[in-house]
Specification:
By secondary structure, the chain is mostly helical. It has helices spanning 15-24, 29-36, 49-60, 81-92; strands spanning 6-8, 13-14. It has one domain (6-92): Arc Repressor Mutant, subunit A (Orthogonal Bundle), CATH 1.10.10. The protein contains 4 helices and 2 strands. Strands 1-2 form a two-stranded antiparallel ribbon. The longest helix has 12 residues, at 49-60. It binds FE2/S2 (inorganic) cluster (FES). FE2/S2 (inorganic) cluster (FES) binds at residues 8-11, 38-41, 43, 45, 47-48.
């Protein structure tokens, strides 16, 4: 695979970036996620997660099943600004 290949479409992260981070010693999905934002896009790593885990596994000489996937958290629900303003006004009374 060409190193300029984008492996995280949501965050425009290339294979080359991931491989360089692994060489620098970042060998967990969460570390790579925090630096590149790979896995934090709308698909939450469903597309890039397996590819990044495969790179980590290959670099470490491990089976991909031995590589821990990212910590998943539920999505935050948006709050309408009007509701915040209403609650803020209540505290001023
Ligand atoms: S492709 Fe990486 S988060 Fe969607």
């Amino acid at each position: 695979m060409d190193e300029d290949t984008i492996i995280c479409r949501c965050s425009d992260v290339t294979l080359k970036e991931v491989r360089e981070l692994i060489k620098e010693g970042y060998v967990t999905f969460d570390e790579i996620k925090r630096i590149t934002r790979a896995g934090m896009g709308p698909c939450q790593g469903k597309t890039c997660g397996h590819l990044i885990m495969r790179e980590i596994a290959n670099a470490a000489g491990k089976d991909i099943r031995d590589i821990k996937f990212q910590t998943s958290r539920p999505p935050v629900i948006g709050v309408k600004l009007g509701l915040i303003a209403k609650e803020g006004g209540r505290n001023e009374e």
